[in-house]
Amino acid sequence: MRILPELEKTIALAKLIESTGVAAITIHGRTINERSMHRNRNEVIQAIAHSVGIPVLANGGSRDIIRNHEDIEYFRQLTSATGVVIARAAMWNPAIFKSLQVDEPLPKLEEIICRYLTLSVRYDHHIAGAKYCVLRMLHDFGGTPIYEDVLASNELRDLCAIWNMLDVYDHEMSNRLERLKNHQLTLNNSTVNCNQEIISSPSLSVSSDSLSVPEKRPRVEEHLLNTTTVLVNDNNVLGVKINNFEETVLSIPYERRFWPDHGTSPKQILREHCKLLKWDSPKYETIEDRNKRSFFSTVLVNGKRYRNTSACKSKKYAEQAAVLVCLHVLGIPDGKVHADENNKVTLNNK
């Protein structure tokens, strides 16, 4: 659970959760509206640990405290917790669980990345997931050439090339293909035996309906094929006409952390705007690019369509991104917040 603004209510909530019979409780030292830029309230976690009778697991110390293995124990003692839950600190430094006091030296970052990429190729990890993990490990190197090279990678082979691992890539791919062939032979033999049993058994039959393939979601390419007219205006905004609806296409990234408060999301702002002008409620259409595991949405507002080409990891985020395009074109403040160098949050009223 995340803490509440008031200590008393936070402790009361923790006790309520304890009363349900849970074996332990994890406490993150920030409220639901706060992000990593805000201070983790370790003293609140400590107060909860002293107030309940079940183990408390402390969370939220990745940014300010936990940088190596010894910091984990320090964070635990600081919060009087039974244990520690780590997320970002482990992504930044996968070797964080190895103590500095052991005789064996800690692996270097390059070694960790190379080992990770080897396993990614071996087990056919998707490029999107591999890039995400490598970029998290390189979080201190943002803007450097190697960071930009990772961002530009489109395949696991591209990532391996950055660290001169093409020989490893080819070796692992060869082994993986061999495993697939052996697996396919096993499946084929099993299928033959199974078919022989079915043929010899008059009580078993297979209908063609049972072999039908379920309909897939539309992909990005299929959506773009429906585009009939392409226009570019003086503001470099791409416009198209689909099914007699004018469509505006922009690429505006949507990041959830910039809309932390309830009631101020782009979709809610647009909904209130439509109610004010007595327009019909916005309608959404979402498509999935399965190759990249990304979602793209279009929103229909007052007879016009607005589409965002910035990829999102979920349908919910893609809809918010589409609304950003609409708000931008209509000149409506999108409610985005910004953090300055002092971590103060300001509202985007432009």
TrEMBL record:
It comes from Schistosoma mattheei. It holds the Pfam family Dus. GO terms for cellular component: cytoplasm. CDD domains: DSRM_DUS2L. It comes from the Eukaryota. One of its GO terms (molecular function) is tRNA dihydrouridine synthase activity. This is Uncharacterized protein.
